[in-house]
Amino acid sequence: MKLCIPVAENQALNSIVYSHFGSAPLFLLVDSETLAVESLTNHDEHHVHGACNPLKALAGRAVDAVIVGGIGAGAVRGLRQSGIAVYQSPAQTVAEAVAQFYAGELPELDVQHACGGHAAGGGCHH
Length: 126
Known about the structure:
This protein has 3 helices and 5 strands; from the N terminus they run E-E-E-H-E-H-E-H.
């Protein structure tokens, strides 16, 4: 399974999870079986607020699930319509988020539980 996690910089599994999917500079693609990590630039980072195109952001890369701290309703809708599951994690690092995913501890997000806006500094406001 290919997991996608937003980050600010690539520090492999020690990367800090970025607070919001759409404005993350990078995504780490993690193979859930081998834990191999690949970095992907967010191809939609500079979109108009509320107009995130998650498939453009992922540049057509095949992923099975996205693990986020926060994400807008439009992005959740776009990912789910494309068959990509969206999970929310309070983890600080990619390694912690992957461990939570394996343990079945992450709730799957739907549009009703997406971010309602941004807090100071661009972080997600829940």
